[in-house]
């Protein structure tokens, strides 16, 4: 309960933690999302490791816009599962109605955090439903993942975009090209490692 | 009532009607949205009538994408008002948290139905909060309109875009230019009028 | 040449005609785009005809937002082919650089005209590059279609979304459900047919 | 100069430098964009300094998606100024045609890099045209800035969003809250400063 004297102040860490907690509660592991990333990217980067995929998924999930979309989508799934939405929204989300596209809209705001280059990857996994996406789409479980399946695909697509950006930066470094200012996140990680802390 | 033998089939009319019903229940009239449109457009079209503004708002509200966004947004507002969302989503929506942007994302999907030319109008009314938007933003009422205020601004912006398209078509007709195929909606209205029915 | 006395007035028909003319000049037929639509939709609608696919592609192409995106994208392709862009934009478009995503952004504004439900179809064809998209991606021809391949996929995806909307309307009519106001375009076509004209 | 033996490899630094060079060539200074940011944000953060505004504009401009949009937009403005686009695209861009919205679409991809919370700020400055935007909109100069004025407003809006994110992080630090992983960019700056380099 809020104390009237303390003005509302968002706690970003609580938002980040709730994102991880809810993904877990709804049965999705970071590892599974990372596997989608590997599926999307290993033909372009044969040396890509699962560890890198996991790390890139985590960087995507560290963004507030992503956390907002994940939490909002999962909330709507959960409420639909409990039958608590008003009609006809309840029906549309419960049945993953094909003309209901708000789930795609939220997914899109996630893909977008690393730019438009992720749109294609999103559409591809959303159509083929590999790995975890197949399970999330299984309508026989009684669970409703109308939002979550799109969200998971979108996180994987955004992580793929992030990898494309970093790999380009690495290539340029290897070529001895003057460095563009894009590797700030890696820099932060190096700093954190040196300081004994961890930025994530 | 659903019969187990009848597979789920979306009833578009029910979706349309729920949209109007919920706007009404949350205290927003079509007239008020039309007033925002008039405010945005009368300096460009001095002869614009309130009737035209109302009609254009109705055409925007007849789109399924718009109805989906309106219903989803209002549902989240209502649940936040009842304190039924999980934390910290409850807090973010309840306090219209400035880093929570999913409301803007839904608003954007509405603006977009008549293309990107509506973005500016949306931002403008969302900043100035004229008319109905001021009331929806009054945090002292106990009501929560985190989504609805953005949605109403977006509907007004989309209606403004629609007017811009139709006015151009009218200008070209007056100039005796060969007609582009954009006036299908008006055509539909003429047809409906002639048939004694009404398409909206 | 503009006559100083005549204020600029957009001729929508000229914009529409240029869109068709430039698609043709760049080697893309409406039929080929319709084939992508058929590929995307026939598993959902086994009775879908090529004629319907063509008609839906034409309705997508009749939208000003779509025409604007098509013309702008083709213009950039043509200028890149002629080597007339400044560096490094010339290089990025010429090589369909993977970190250059403005082509996807324009494609997206096209997909969006019938809502977010088309995102998946766009990503899917953009990844698999069936039919005309394979030809447009053949880098050995000397032609540059960095924008056009995404645009063609986007038009096909938007047409698919439009079909999903109309098929739902048809299903509801067959079920004798009260009609939602979505079939205005068909109404316009019926009106035009009756009047002996054609709205398209 | 391209050597046939060296495969194309994007030089990110060249893209970044071209972005700055072309903004300068088209008469826009970072200072002026920062002034728009100050105008948008100082009522929320009275202690905001011009130096912070400049720094945030620079961080926005360091993003590849932003650079791509800036360069593409300026290229189209320049070509329109030289009369080198095909008709009717030439006319639409030359006259900043109200139904031509591709400039807004590019602007939007810029605003989006720090999420949807920037949409409102974009629309607001785009409507009011303060400062540099008024000059860019002066149609009497013979210069064409159809894209650039929207781009500049979008960069300012994105920088404003970035400030909102950082200020929240600062507030949470002051409150002694556990830190969310959002300050990686600042971390990178500290690292760079310590290493004697500059991540820009």
TrEMBL record, chains A, B, C, D:
Alphabetical list of Gene3D superfamilies matching this protein? PgpA-like
Q: Name one GO molecular function term.
A: phosphatidylglycerophosphatase activity
Q: Where is the YutG/PgpA domain?
A: 30-164
BP term (GO), one: lipid metabolic process
Q: Can you name this protein?
A: Phosphatidylglycerophosphatase A
